[in-house]
Each structure stands twice: as structure tokens, then as C-alpha cells.
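Record type: monomer structure entry
Structure origin: computed from sequence
Chain ID: A
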Amino acid sequence: MIIPLSSLKLGMSGIIVRLDFSDPIKERFISMGLIPGKKITYVHESPFGDPMVFKIEDNKIMIRKNEAENIFINVTEKIISLDETTPGIYEVFLIKGGILLRKELENLNIHCGEKIEVLNNKFGKVTIKANGITYTFGKGRSKKILLKK
């Protein structure tokens, strides 16, 4: 699936397909290492989401969100937050929350790589089943838990 670089969630990666810029701007990005065919990973989220920090090979680069909208990549797996899910089985990919949320999930025995089942997602409440026990999360916490199908 080809999406703009600005649509990535933290931890997602893909292969650069094309740069939709005029030639001088395209040359600047190519000199920074944004070459079609290279793998790029979203590694750091700024407090307000702009700029975005990406890793290409061993280099990290910052790109403004409005520039990232013109860079297209091919992603193989989509990562979504818990609040965007539909019922089904998912794998916990990343927990973006602070230490309190991490401790709470650790006490519930929910870790990265853990399989969970989303039972329903209605009215800002997400009900999941993990390790045979049912839990409900509000919208705020569920936005900080990233999953892959």
C-alpha cells in the first residue's frame, strides 16, 4: 500500500517510492538520502508532531510534516492505535504512554509482541481480551497503544 510519509505512525517503516517536488527541492531531499528504493523508518515524534524524525540506514533526518506529505512510501504492514481498531486479533507493537501506563499494562501482563483480542470499540471505550481477562480502556489510553494486525 502506497501512502504519504506524513501518514506513518511511530515505529512504522516502508520503502521510498517517489518524491513529488520540483527538481531543486527533490535534489535537496535526494542529497539527504531520500532515494527511491531505500527503507525509511519513523523513529521520533515531536511534541506537536512537527517536525518528524526518520531513520534511513544509519542516518536520522528531520522533515517537516508538510514536506513529508509529498514523499510516498510503500508499507507492508499497517500499524494502528487501539482506538482505531475493529473487533479482531492484534499484536501489541508499541506503547507510547508514560511510565504509569507502561506499569499498568505490565501489571496486566500486556507487553510488546503480546496478542490481544479487541472485543468492541464503541463510544470512546475499547474492550479487549488479553490472557483470558477482559479490560476496558478509554480513548486517551487507547491512542497510546499501537497495534499491528
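Annotation 1: The CA atoms of residues 120 and 127 lie 5 Å apart.
Annotation 2: The domain at 79-148 is CATH 2.30.30.90 (SH3 type barrels.).
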